[in-house]
Structure formats: C-alpha cells, structure tokens
Amino acid sequence: MNTLSFKCNNCGASISQAQQVRNGLCDQPSCLLTARRHSAATIAAERADLQQTAQRHWDNIQADRPADAIMGVVPFIRPALTVLSQARRSAFQKILQDLIDSVCKQPNLAEAEAVTGDSATVEESAEATVLASACELCGGLCCKSAGNHAYLQPATLHNFLAANHASDATDIMAAYMAHLSTHTYEGSCVFHGAAGCTLPRAMRSDICNRYVCTGLLELRRNLSNSQTAPVYLSAMQIKTVRRWKRIKR
Q1: In this structure, are residues 139 and 233 in contact, taking their beta carbons and an 8 Å threshold?
Q2: SS in 3 state form for 129-149?
Q3: Which of 59, 208, 228, 249 could form a disulfide with 204 if both were Cys (CB 3.0 to 4.6 A apart)?
Q4: Is pLDDT of 123 > 70?
Q5: Rg of the chain over CA atoms, in angstroms?
C-alpha cells in the first residue's frame, strides 16, 4: 500500500504528517534542540523586520494611515501555472485508491487527524474575510508540500462517506477525480488551481482546514484587539512586498 512518507529535516527519521506540517522535525531531543536554536526571539526579530519592510512599502503608498491601522504580513508564492500532467493525475489516483482500500478495511474509523498548535480554522474565525484575503494574497505556500497526496488520509474519506451518504468506494474516486483541474501550480498540490483549492472544504484534509501559518496567527491576534481598525496586508517574498491590499472595516 502506498502511504504518505515524511522524513525529519535534521536526522532523516520517519515522522508523522502532523510533525511535517509543524516544523519538519521528529521529537528526538537533538532535533528539538535544532528547532529551539531558531528561537522565539529570532522568529520575533524576523517578523519585526518583515513588518518594518511592509511599513515602508505602505509609507510610499499611504503615509497618512490611521494610528490604529493593523499591519498584516504573509508569505508570497506564485509558481508557474502549468497543465496538470497525466503522470500527476495517475499518481494521485494511485494514492487515492490505496486510501480507499484502507477505508474499506477500517469501516468504523473515526476522524483522527490533528495538527499541533492552534486548532481554530480560518472559516470559524470572526475575522474570516480578512484572513481569507491574506491567504489569497499569499497564494498558497502551505499547499506546496501537499504534492500528489493533498494530505488526504483514510479518516478524510470516512468523513466524506458519512457526510454524503456515498454508497461505495467508486463514489469516492469519482468525486475526488472530478475536482482535479486542468491546470495546477507547478510543484504544488494537485488541487492547487488558479483560483485556490479546487476541493470543497468538506473534502479537504483536516490539516488543510485547520493549519494556520505564523502570519495569520499574528494577524488574528491583532484583529482581536480592534473590531474597526483598517487592515493593510502585504504578501512578501524574502524581503520584498509582491502583493498588497487595504481592507476597510
């Protein structure tokens, strides 16, 4: 059976899907130490540097911003939009078939996927419109590692069956294959299309629905401090603002 496989970025040991999304490291002390070296202070300094770059960008566009304006900084990715090859379609179909076979062997499996960290989804947030705009500006950096497997797990398919009253495995295959687009971003998820994810949210992996990047977490904390302050979003690649958007609230 073809299952998802991830390796620790430090020692090469096998890690879970949740560990891959979290930081790409296993839980061995030596590897966790590697993660700690990239300390909270370092991350804070990096975020502050990005915020300053975004501030300078907006100073050139609108220097008279309100004093309570909220700055949001997210990553930026824009790989080439390419035709989804038959090879990638076949690879996904094989992965999906293996998952379906697993589902048939575990008919009572409950949803068991989890991501370490903040579990609130963007959709559940009161600031959903702002956060969704930030995701749109980014373009889907978190989708890049989903490759041909889209982070789908047996539990994802069980949930789909339960929600749609699908009769058998054929329904699962047909439903997921129908959502593959003719084009996808090069090197990204097979469902990463020109307008975002081509899968309905209910068909996505729990990781895809619940993962919140550092930029969104930071933005959500700032939004919670004010219900009316305007938001100035910047999507940055390294230290360059590639896309931006102002949102009135």
Answers
A1: no
A2: HHHHHHHHHHCCHHHHHHCCC
A3: 208
A4: no
A5: 20
- 3 state SS of 159: helix
Amino acid at 61: I
Structure tokens at 1: 């059976």
d(CA 20, CA 38): 17
Give the strand pairing for 81-83 and 183-185.
antiparallel
d(CA 23, CA 72): 22
Q: What is the DSSP letter of 167?
A: -
| pLDDT score of 87 | 97
What gap in Å lies between CA 198 and CA 191, rounded to an integer?
5
Task: Measure the CA–CA gap between 20 and 37, rounded to whole angstroms.
Answer: 18
Instruction: Give the amino acid at 63.
Output: A
pLDDT digits 0-9 by tens, 157-171: 988 888 877 667 788
Of the candidates 13, 42, 49, 62, the one whose C-alpha atom is nearest the C-alpha of residue 232 is 62
Q: pLDDT at position 120, please?
A: 46
pLDDT at position 3 = 61
Q: Is residue 109 over pLDDT 80? A: no
Q: Residue 67 is which amino acid? A: A
In single-letter form, the type of residue at position 51 comes to Q
Q: In the predicted model, what is the mean pLDDT of residues 87-91?
A: 97
| pLDDT above 80: residue 189 | yes
State how beta strands 231-237 and 70-75 pair.
parallel
CA distance 235 to 241: 6
Give Cβ neighbours of residue 101 (< 8 Å, ≥ 6 apart).
Answer: 1, 169
Does position 34 have pLDDT exceeding 80, yes or no? no
Mean pLDDT computed over every residue of the chain = 85
Helix (H/G/I), strand (E/B), else coil: 45:
helix
